[in-house]
Write a structure and sequence with these properties.
single chain; about 70 residues; about 60% helix; about 0% strand; elongated
């Protein structure tokens, strides 16, 4: 008989766990002060300087330049 009850109750136990954790998060955990979050939301966004990637070597110059030390 228990073999039928436990699988049938598993979704309800999981739902009760999620609801309890949600209640615990809303009522027990401390909330963050609103000051810094609002200050970050109101601060203007200034994009950083885009990264300068090195240019790949010129393939034509490498093919026509010859090998160093070889005549």
């Amino acid at each position: 008989m228990y073999a039928l009850i436990i699988p049938a109750l598993t979704p309800f136990v999981l739902l009760a766990t999620v609801l309890a954790l949600s209640w615990w998060e809303d009522h027990i955990l401390p909330t963050l002060p609103a000051g810094p979050v609002e200050a970050l939301a109101e601060a203007p966004f200034t994009p950083a300087v885009p990264a300068q990637f090195p240019q790949p070597p010129n393939v034509d110059a490498a093919l026509t330049g010859g090998m160093p030390g070889v005549d």
